[in-house]
Amino acid sequence: MTTPTEPPVPPGRPAPARPGRKLGPVADNVGSAHRAWLDPMRTAYLASGLTLNELSGRVRFAKSKISELLRGVGLYPRWEIVLLLALELGMPNWPLYRLWSQAALEAHRNSDWINGCTDRTTVTATYTAPPLEHGAFRELVESDYALYAQVFLDDDQRDNAVDDTFNRLWLSWNEALAHHDTRRYAWDVLRATVMARTPHRDGRPELGAAAFDTVILHTLTDPADYANELTETLELFTAISRLPDRQLDVIILRRLCGFTHEAASALLGASLATIRSDERHATRFLDSVIPPPSTEGTTP
To answer: Which pTM does this prediction carry?
Structure first.
């Protein structure tokens, strides 16, 4: 999908000064699923120009409680207040509800609690269609996103991660369009969503499950050959996991997903030169840590 030829002013320009106390940062203990909808809501609030006082008057909810909600402080918020704020801030309620529900489960709220919040709400989270450009973008890249996510996650987690990615993009679609490259913005959302669900060791994502799913292992019938190949594959995947983030993504797309340089460039929103450079640097690193096959005893 091409980006606008004359994009709006990129994010990062300071918001107009507003009276009253500045909104504090998100609490450190807020999880990734909670932040998936909280960060877009904070962005919508800051872009609205409203003060907490004004927002409190409009939704008829205590200013202190709104501040706590927007910082992720205290108990996980009920859907009623989240929806009131969303309506006031012009946020689409369907993707917000999907992300809120997912985060509620991770906050150890059961389905009865979630349904109870919704049943008591006058305006429910009815489905509405996303913006046309968002829908077109999803149709263009969804299957490719799933291939990337599959390297790190099982089938159910993969599908949830991809779905959550597009719900997050829907909530922040204007910001995505304002970015210098919508594809790059969207990829960063996908990556953050997938990595939040991926097991990590020493700060790096684990790729052991993907190693067991390589094509060559499925073709080996001799136990000794399988064991040797598995050992080498695990060593390779461990080395891949140590790559810098951008090089890791390029190697995964190129070697594990089978993308061409051009396809990886389009998906990541990076130039062909950048893709090739990242691949070269990654390959040199992998060659330096994975010893070549032994040639001992062979004829020169």
So the answer is: 0.79
Q: Which CATH architecture has domain 32-119?
A: Orthogonal Bundle (1.10)
Tell me the per-residue pLDDT of 40-66, one tens digit each, with 9 for 90 and over: 999 999 999 999 999 999 999 999 999
From residue 298, alpha-carbon distances to 37, 160, 241, 292, 295 in Å are: 60, 50, 33, 14, 6
Which residue do the tokens 């060593």 mark? 235
Could you count the other beta carbons within 10 Å of the beta carbon of residue 155?
Answer: 10
CB 197 within 8 A of CB 204: no
Of the CA atoms within 13 Å of residue 116, those in its CB half-sphere come to: 8
- CB burial of residue 131 (10 Å; 0-12, 13-18, 19+): middle
pLDDT per position as a tens digit, 245-259: 999 999 999 988 899
CA-closest candidate to residue 254, choices 277, 233, 288: 277
